[in-house]
Each structure stands twice: as C-alpha cells, then as structure tokens.
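Handout, section 4.2: multi-component inputs.
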Amino acid sequence: MSATFSQWMGDIQQRTESALDRALPGADIAPTRLHDAMRYAVLGGGKRVRPLLVHAGGQLTGAAPERLDRVACAIEMIHAYSLVHDDMPCMDDDVLRRGKPTVHVEYDEATALLVGDALQTQAFLHLADGAVCDDPQRQIAMIRQLAQASGSRGMCGGQAIDLGSVGQQLTLPELEFMHIHKTGALIRASINLGVQCGRSLDEAQMASLDHVGKVIGLLFQVVDDILDAEADTATLGKTAGKDAANDKPTYVSLLGVTRARELAEEMCQEALDRLAPFGDSSQRLAELTRFIIRRQF
Amino acid sequence: MSATFSQWMGDIQQRTESALDRALPGADIAPTRLHDAMRYAVLGGGKRVRPLLVHAGGQLTGAAPERLDRVACAIEMIHAYSLVHDDMPCMDDDVLRRGKPTVHVEYDEATALLVGDALQTQAFLHLADGAVCDDPQRQIAMIRQLAQASGSRGMCGGQAIDLGSVGQQLTLPELEFMHIHKTGALIRASINLGVQCGRSLDEAQMASLDHVGKVIGLLFQVVDDILDAEADTATLGKTAGKDAANDKPTYVSLLGVTRARELAEEMCQEALDRLAPFGDSSQRLAELTRFIIRRQF
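Output:
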C-alpha cells in the first residue's frame, strides 16, 4: 500500500508485459510467423487498462497477484484480438495502432485474421490452464463470464451494433447500449473477474462492484470520444479524429465536448461513491477511476 | 444398439441440429443481424462429422446424450467459425459452402468476421455453461483441450501452415504435420471429449483412443483431398477442384489418387484394429470410420 499510484501502475504494467510474454507461444515455435505476429499484436505497448482493473479489483478481495496475472493476460488477449480484427480493411481499415503499423499492414490480412482468431483461443486456454481461484466451479463460472463479456451479447455484439450505426443518428440511450457492449463489457468483466480471484464477497457487494464496473466502462468510452475529438495522432498512438471521419456517433457528436466532460465527471463521482464503503481495499480502483478521467492518451 | 448405423447417424444429426438451434442466440435478440448471420453459418447444413464423432466417442464410456450434445455443439461452433473465416476474401475467397452462399457473400465481410469471432466465443461459453461430466476439474481440462485443439498449435496453426504452403513443394511428413493441425486436431478432440463425458478409462485406453482420433483425422483429410480432386461442385456443396486451382499441396498431388486410396485403406484398418479391444462399445466409432472412407460428399 505504500507505493504511489504511479509506482503501482508501472509495476502492474511491467508484470503484465512479462506475464503476457510467458503466456504466448514463443516466436521460435511452429507456426513461427503466426506466433511472431501474435506477439507483435500483444507485446510492447498498450496502456494495459484492463490488467490494471483486474489487479485493482483483486485488491478488494486480497487476491494473489499470480492469479490476477492469469486473468489479466486472458482479458488482454481478448482485447488485443478485437483490436487486430477491428483494424482490418473490412472493418475500420486502420494502419496505426499503439504507434506501430497494424498487424495486417506489418504482416498480411490473412495472418491478421488468424492472429485474432488464435489470440481469442489463447485467452480461453490461458484462463483454463491454471488456478485462478480456490473453487473449480467458480473458475468455470469465470470462463463463462469472460465468454459472455466478449461474445455476441458483449464486446462482439457491440462491434456489430457499431457497424450498423455508421451514418445513423443515435439517441443517447442507443449510444450507451452500444458502448455498454463494445468497450464496457470487457472493462466490467476485468473488475468482476479480478474480484473473484480472492475471498468471497456477499451478493450486495458483488452487485455494487458490478455497477462500478459498468460506470467505469462508460466513463472510459466518454473520455475516449473526447480524446478522439481533441488529441492528435502522435499523442494517441492511433489515428485521431477517425470517429468524425467515419461519421460515427460519439458522446461528443451527440452532446458536445462540454456536456461530455460534465457527464464524465458525474460518472467518476458515482463510481467513487460506490467504492467508498469498501475503504482501503478500494484504493487502487478509486485511483484508477480518477486516472481514467484525467488521461491524455 | 438396435438402430442401424444410418438410423443412428440421422438421429445424431437431427438432435445436433436441434441442440445447436437452442445453443445459439435467437435471431430476434439484439444484435439481430449478427445473430441471424451466426445461425445462417451454423444451422441447416453440414454432415455434422464432429458431432457424430463426439457421440461415437461417448458410446465408449456410456456418456449421457445431453452432455454429448453440449460438447458436440461447442465443437461444431468452432468448426463453423473456421469455415466462415476460411471462406473470406483474404483467405480462400470462396462463395459457396454447404450449397449456400458463404457468409461474407450473403451478408458482408465485416459481418462474416464478427460471426466467426462470436461463434468461437459462443463455443467456449456453451462448454462452460452446463455440466459435461461429473468432475468440474475435468470440465476445465476439457475446455483447455478444446482450446488447444483449435488454437495456434491446433486448427488455427494448421491454417497458418496451410497459408504458407501455397505454391510450395511439401514432403509427406510436412503435409501430415499441416493436416494433423488443420483438420486433425479438432476431429481428434471430438472423440477425446466425447469419451471424457462418461466413465473414466485408464491411461492406456485413453492413449489408444487418442491415437484412433489422430488416424481418423488424417483419414478424413486424405478422403477430402480425393473428393476435392474427383467430385463435382454440385455433389460437394462447395467449390470442387479448388486445391489444384489454388496450387495447394494435397495427398493426391503428392501421392496420386491410387496411392492416396491405399493410404486411406491402411489408416481405416489401423483405426479398426485399435478399436477392436473395446468390443461393442466401439461399434459406432468403427462404423463411422468405415463411413468416412466410403463417403461421397
């Protein structure tokens, strides 16, 4: 607890990088080009927001860091696969990600397709390949939760709604529904799965933390929309302004920057209020919430 | 046991269709277009070879049909996702599958990408969403085995090797290595996972059945190569002769049709010899092996 938030964040980012390096097949193992590309897509970049949320969630139940690493790697692989596929020509057709050429640009389209496919499989393999809690039934439930959060009624469904919304005028509830699925589901699962790596909480506590996860997921997206509208490509490490260029509805296009900022502040406060009863054990999650609203990248 | 093989096969195909129908989100659930396309990709077609293998494997250990349905659906969803992605323009660029337009033709490329992604997730969700055996630790191991069979060191890795082999002159061991991964891994897993739904076998029995699965997997591919070279598109329900057109190495291109047929007979006999000690409980798997070598589609 003595480390500052920034030291803690650096530590988690570093241990996540190292855990991901071990969790992915080596680039010397056949098929080498595929494994090399999978490593390219996952390693050496990213803010590791979801692993940070897993570890912050784990603090609430005193979970072992090694278990949290396993969950964090699985979730980060799901996130990375979604970025690889999202960047492909038939989706967002983007050439830059985390300051580097996207996978289909660096390798080729067919490899990018397989990289995304194999990373998703690797996520479930990793989550089933070691203990993440004391109860195997709970581990099966956690695998199920990761699948729910990333499947057709979670992240992947959000992508599909996003596809269908290009050039559409969405209402605020429709936009929220899309984001609760597209980015929100995996962020929410990050906290929930981190929490489940440790001691059991009662149902009301679990429900409260689940709500915090939902709010942080939306907060993350509101901030993302503000950054996309305001930051430049060099700072973001990915193509800026592409929402407007792609005629995609965002919180900014719907509410304007000023109201979007206010909304973010309200969401942040709601999450902090919900975390207060958990006292010191919610320190990192509270700090992370404040960090998300302040982030510039 | 009184049903003929063809009655048994019809029964398994029918109950698989019905189990898949229940295992997939309804086309009326949002996002409706994605769910509709997922159902299009999975339902109303296919020989259901892998579900048949799951149920034949389950006969060896007296497994409950409902548990076998769950495993069969998960494996069939993995198989279906791989077909959807394999047919995309950046891979095989095929327009016909199971006698119908492929998903990216019937819908669009972005939807096909998401359909494949979401079907893979749905497979893991389904396998973690109900009991498939008595021991939760074994269920976790089964989830792990499905992931191993379908990931970068299984099916997906085989696809990557296949990609890299176009226009290459492969040796027979290299071709075998590719197919053990590309088609073999999931066929092998179908039998192994079916077996694990029932009572426990000793290690030697498990290893013997695993070997049978490996042989049947290769047999299936040899027959596939012969059919691709000889049958016509209408009979296959998918584009015939595309291996030669794509300059892909096959058992036929490497060995010629006559030797490929002999090899298939040898493999079939090896599998049957291994199954003999299991007596009556191996009836369906033995029948299925003989069916695979005789199949015309």
